[in-house]
Design goal:
Helix content is about 50%, strand content about 20%. With about 160 residues, the protein is an alpha+beta fold.
């Protein structure tokens, strides 16, 4: 398996896609039930293959990631050959970016001496999709990029 197996909740959300995946292999519900009952190792393999297919699609289309912690926000723009990053750091220890109040504080103090912003660019260490997957396993989430674009626009002006 290249990535990780989808969770039960993710499989439930992708129920129809999984049914189509099995159908593409000429496996109907009755046969799938038999495989699960009599050949659990084959069922496990099918779940893993489907999971990898879903991850491949998600990672191929990923452009922006965000990772919030108490005093840091990591914003990533995933280009083809490299990844742009912005790290926003609060120098006020009491501020918590995981709360609504912390984000409000950030919007009011973004360009003060109490906030550091570091911008970087890095070539992928591994293949693009694997590098993005590594960031996700470290806690980053897929995003629409609005925050990255807004902060980048402000920095550039």
């Amino acid at each position: 398996m290249k990535y990780k197996r989808l969770t039960k909740e993710q499989f439930e959300a992708l129920h129809q896609e999984f049914a189509n995946f099995l159908a593409s292999q000429s496996i109907d519900k009755k046969e799938w039930d038999e495989i699960k009952a009599n050949k659990p190792e084959v069922a496990e393999q099918e779940l893993d293959v489907f999971s990898d297919l879903i991850w491949e699609g998600v990672l191929s289309n990923s452009q922006f990631l965000e990772h919030f912690s108490k005093n840091h926000i990591f914003l990533f723009h995933c280009q083809e050959e490299f990844i742009d990053s912005m790290v926003i750091k609060s120098l006020v220890p009491q501020v918590d970016f995981l709360t609504k109040e912390g984000l409000q504080w950030l919007s009011e103090n973004l360009f003060t001496e109490t906030v550091e912003i570091h911008v970087g660019k890095k070539n992928y260490d591994a293949e693009r999709k694997e590098s993005i997957f590594d960031l996700i396993t470290q806690g980053a989430i897929l995003s629409d990029g609005q925050l990255y674009i807004q902060v980048n626009t402000i920095i550039q002006s």
